[in-house]
Amino acid sequence: MIPRNLTSERFSWTTVLLYDARMPDTAAARPRYRFGPFELSPAERQLRREGMEVRLIPRYFDLLVLLVDERHRAVHRQEIFDRVWSDVIVSDGALSQAVRTLRRTLGDDPREPQFIRTVSRHGYQFVFLEVAVASDVDTTAVPRKVDVARSEPAADADAFGPLLDRLLKRGGALNVTDEERLDAAQQLHVLGTAETLARVDRLPGHAEARALLRDARWDVPGAGDVPLVGTPGWPASALALVRLRLRRAARLVSSRWAFASAGGALAGAVAGAIGGLALLLVPASHASSSIVLALTVVGTVAGAIAAAGIGAGLTAAEALARSQRAWALVGCGALGGGIIGFAAHHLARSVMTGLFGHDVAGIGGGVEGLLLGAAAGAGYALATPRLAGGGLATPRGAARLRVAVITGVACGVAGLVLSLAGRRLVAASLDIMADAFSGSATGLAPLALLIGEQSLRPVTQTLISVFEGVSFGAGLAYGLTHRPDHRER
After folding, report:
1. Which of 17, 70, 137, 362 would you label with 321, given CA atoms 20 to 30 Å apart?
2. Inside any domain, residue 3
């Protein structure tokens, strides 16, 4: 949340808004640092230049504190990600952008750094030699001066020109990178979002420029809105925004999707093994010991396939959507689950018909995948509320288990709804197949007899469907929230 009395102001570039709900009520017993014209107070979460407060995005402030705290050594990139972005996955570009912003704020030159030095293939180090350390005290009651520019939209009209050239890749800025263009977009937001949009619209390259401005607004609190729908060339802007975010997160997305698939496969293997052991141990069953291995394999394959579809949808939603994140997770999860379920259903029927001459029409498919994917998206969105500044959620420890449990419960509810509606997940589909083959030991009949059910077995199917949903959702979410190692990046 941004303080109400600051939202209407325009800031100089070194004045990027900081407002952090985690700010303590009293100062912690931490040192206060003075270097050059700057004073850094971790307890008050303030950076001042010659007495004027210079506001930073919370994570950028945390990065500066980390580098100053550990100035006696170079801090590895992995440690920075683990400590500053501990709850989200972001691309390496996010760290590079944070360092560029800090350097600009401090007036530093990366070629001859006075404050922040890049350590090749390692990380960054704060290198200013004369750092004075003093005891920090709580001065929150003292009125603070804030480095705020005038509120007129174009105090210096010429300031827009070079930045617009970079954003639009024109003039002498034809070879700028996406990161440099995003950097220009952030500075233009500081000068004035509405004025920037008025200048950009209908110029050559305006659609892609609007996409960059849309993406950059999340990193400049207080920036104005950048609508897409209904603006000139908005389909091209939307497509450019998707390409931009996918390029930035491509490597992270592929890794995250793979771990989501692995989590679903593991959950399916465990569920299959439990089901096999249950059939092996039930007195009414005629299953042999091989049933445990067979159902473990079936569960692994089914879990991996389902998680591949739903995990792909959730990963894409999280990478692409910075607004309406919950709806994107539900919609993309449902889409991924529906597509993979539809494909799996028809593939299974084709195999059964081609190899065994039996067309088993009652096995689960697209509807089951769609509802299960939507439930996984809803549970995951509920467990990982919207992240400030974007990124892919990576809760740790107990928080990660909590996400797995909530997502599992949501998928368990979906399993219940599907069973009550007469739809079938894996175990119930195997039960249908078992009825098509005399002598099959994979049916649910032995388990149903334990609770007094006969041929229809609705209670047994419902209980097992809920169990399948819970185990699948928990495995999917646990795999999805795996935190990658940046050491090899």
Report:
1. 17
2. no
Nearest of 36, 61, 37 to residue 50 by alpha carbon = 37
DSSP string, 135-171: E----TTS---B----SSTTSSGGGHHHHHHHHHT-T
* Residue 385 buriedness (CB in 10 A; 0-12 / 13-18 / 19+): exposed
Same-domain pairing of 125 and 227: no
141 assigned to some structural domain = no
Best-predicted range by mean pLDDT (367-371, 439-443, 444-448):
367-371
The tens digit of pLDDT for each residue in 362-402 reads 788 889 999 999 999 999 999 987 655 556 788 888 999 99
Which of 395, 448, 2 is closest to 217 using CA atoms? 2
End-to-end CA distance of the chain: 33
Alpha helix segments (H runs only) across 287-424: 290-320, 325-356, 366-383, 398-420
Helices and strands: H and E segment counts in the chain: 14, 10
DSSP-derived 3-state class of residue 46:
strand
Q: Which residues in 68-142 belong to E strands, given as ranges?
A: 75-76, 88-89, 116-119, 123-126, 131-135
CA gap 204, 200 in Å, rounded: 9
- Closest alpha carbon to 149 in 6, 3, 9: 9
50 CB-near residues (< 8 Å, 6+ apart) = 37
Task: Find out whether 303 and 314 touch, Cβ atoms under 8 Å.
Answer: no
The answer to whether residues 365 and 466 belong to one domain is yes
**Distance separating alpha carbons of residues 360 and 358, to the nearest angstrom:** 6
In a domain, 12, yes or no: no
What pTM value is reported for the model?
0.70
179 HSE (CA, 13 A, CB side): 12
Cα–Cα dist 461/451, whole Å? 12
pLDDT in tens, 153-168: 444 456 788 888 888 8
Q: CA-to-CA distance for 72 and 82, rounded, in angstroms? A: 19
Domain that holds residue 118: 31-135
As a whole number, mean pLDDT of residues 111-137 equals 88
Instruction: For residue 138, count other CB atoms closer than 10 A to its CB.
Output: 14
Q: Within a domain: residue 21?
A: no
